[in-house]
Every structure is written in structure tokens, then in C-alpha cells.
Amino acid sequence: MQNSFEPDYIVTPGETLREALEHHRVSIEECARRTKRSKQFIIDLIDGKERIGGALPIYLQEVTDIPAAFWWSLQKQYDNKLRGKNEKRNSDTQTD
Prior knowledge:
The protein has one domain: lambda repressor-like DNA-binding domains (434 Repressor (Amino-terminal Domain), Orthogonal Bundle), CATH 1.10.260.40. Helix 2 crosses helix 3 and helix 4 crosses helix 5. The chain has 5 helices and no strands. By secondary structure, it is mostly helical. The two termini are 30 Å apart.
């Protein structure tokens, strides 16, 4: 028997970014400037309303010292979990 924890929530890549920015004491404004994005984009990313894509992981690597591959992978994992959660929700409503 395998014990595993499957939370009923999904942590957004933006939440991880928020923690990384706090750890490195980088403001949202500084992150926006260094990633060539607007302040609102970074706020929306942290709030889970925007995605990490394109060249953004490369810029995030420079800001956070976390490899670009991590950011790409994090977004992909989040997208897959979200898709799985939505599919499960849809199948649950169809069986009700």
C-alpha cells in the first residue's frame, strides 16, 4: 500500500514566484523591470491570472537565481494538474 498526499488544491506558479521574490527581497516593481513586464502583469502572475511562458523563465532565472527550466516545468505541471482537476470535476458532474 502506498501512502501519498493528494491535496485538493493547486499551488500556482505565481505563488512560488511570490515566495522567491520575498526570499530575495525583490519588489514587484523590480521584478517587472527586470523581466520586461508590467507591474500589473507580475501582480496578475502572482495571483494566478497570467502564465509563465515565452522568454519569461529566462528573465525569472536572472531575478530569482532559480533555473529557467524550473519555471517552465512548474508552469507545465500546474497546467497538467489544473486540466486533470477540471476533467475530474466534469466527470463528477456528469455522474451526478
